[in-house]
């Protein structure tokens, strides 16, 4: 390439790209060709071109240098905007990134992590100038925080989008255009399919892209679809203080880690939530302190694999003594070393406010070392309730699921937990009809339900997910009617055994954290005991223990002593939802 062509190339790039890129291209190209021998590039009009070259060289020598394209090292003058606000992208102004008082309507589907994600997303949007509305018709932006764990969960979102389609088409032209966004796991899993199938969807944001919501919405204002579904190796939103969607709630979720490395063969979570990473302990403790100062009485520590927490944010944390796995359990990944573990976090959180209940979900059975169990037993404010997902009672199926344990190891852990924490309440997850499950495998799951007698259970028919190991290596060869029949059998046995287990509470006095009015009767209140069982009791005046002469009505956030008189089932037999016998009556 001749020098003159180099100039023209740079000028064309200048019209297409950012100035810094143009300058780099121009300098590199010209230097490369300045060393080419003249014989390699004949020049019939050498004198004319030499003049052009000298003119260009002189302009280049007096022009900007590389340093002109770097940020100044000096402290920039203070701006009136908040220091937390990052510089806008070069194609958007600060005003375009602002919410400008537009109203956001948020709908949450799926697990507790999605509830927490909703609070994180709203915190980010609120800081950008958006307003919150609880009325769909008032909304300028509708965001659905989605779940992708089963086919039915995704179908619910597709159906909801069809309902919102008419709302968008009927939007008055006098109002700003309605924007609709899909957030969370379904956005991450389906990506382009959503944008291509539903043209009315304006934005997609995966679980690690909520910080980008203001930009995505600003791009959507120009009429374009916008998406960010990049997964991160380090995003934990540690510096984002979630804004509770229910300000009157007595409890809150605190996310302590994100993602999962277990790679169970049936599970989509590692592909929609990414690799496992933990928040720094300091940021978690600060959030819990603020919630305590706000008067909240219960905190649930959240994570896809919450008890595998490992804080490596400080170098000296890597010298921490490693904890062991539960006896008879293994992992699908290389053993990790160092870091502050879940027992350390649980200890520190429980010390912040002795009157604040501490729960955690969802754990993996492999990560219950003795120090965690001992801590739960010793601390009065750490709830004596453990969720212990089994998924199946068959060792053969557990191996196909890549759970890292056998039935025997699981039962031994159950016995050890009950010995370590007397009176502990247990809950679990089960999948009916996994790939290759035989009737004998199914009966082994039935027998595990009878043997353990869980207090609460979540049971589902298997739903194959793309990208999972089961999708690539196994066959979903159990007919749907067989899955549903097995599911109903599991539910029936679970209800029978949970009835027996929960009858042990009848006649006992339970400390109950009041949540609010009962959905079954306006004359009743409901709350939960230490074992996370729902307790329903009359909304009547009662004695205030702090003042024996005062009679008051219980309010959300109050602790009340309730004597249990009966227990009953909370759900009928569904086919596609988790069920649990978790209701006690005063």
Automatic annotation (TrEMBL):
Q: Where is the MTTase N-terminal domain?
A: 102-222
Start and end of every TRAM domain? 503-578
Please give a single GO biological process term from the UniProt record. regulation of protein metabolic process
User: What cellular-component terms does GO give this entry?
Assistant: cytosol; mitochondrion
Superkingdom of the organism of origin: Eukaryota
Q: Name one GO molecular function term.
A: 4 iron, 4 sulfur cluster binding
| Cofactor requirement | [4Fe-4S] cluster
Q: Which InterPro entries does this chain map to?
A: Elp3/MiaA/NifB-like_rSAM, Methylthiotransferase, Methylthiotransferase_CS, Methylthiotransferase_N, Methylthiotransferase_N_sf, MiaB_methiolase, rSAM, rSAM_horseshoe
Q: Which reaction does it catalyse?
A: N(6)-dimethylallyladenosine(37) in tRNA + (sulfur carrier)-SH + AH2 + 2 S-adenosyl-L-methionine = 2-methylsulfanyl-N(6)-dimethylallyladenosine(37) in tRNA + (sulfur carrier)-H + 5'-deoxyadenosine + L-methionine + A + S-adenosyl-L-homocysteine + 2 H(+)
Do you know which SUPFAM superfamilies this protein is assigned to?
A: Radical SAM enzymes
Pfam families (UniProt xref) = Radical_SAM, TRAM, UPF0004
Q: What EC number(s) is this enzyme filed under? A: 2.8.4.3
Tagged with keyword S-adenosyl-L-methionine: yes
Kindly state which keywords UniProt assigns to this record, in alphabetical order.
Answer: 4Fe-4S, Iron, Iron-sulfur, Metal-binding, S-adenosyl-L-methionine
Member of which family? Belongs to the methylthiotransferase family. MiaB subfamily.
What is the protein name given in its UniProt record? Mitochondrial tRNA methylthiotransferase CDK5RAP1
Q: Which gene encodes it?
A: CDK5RAP1
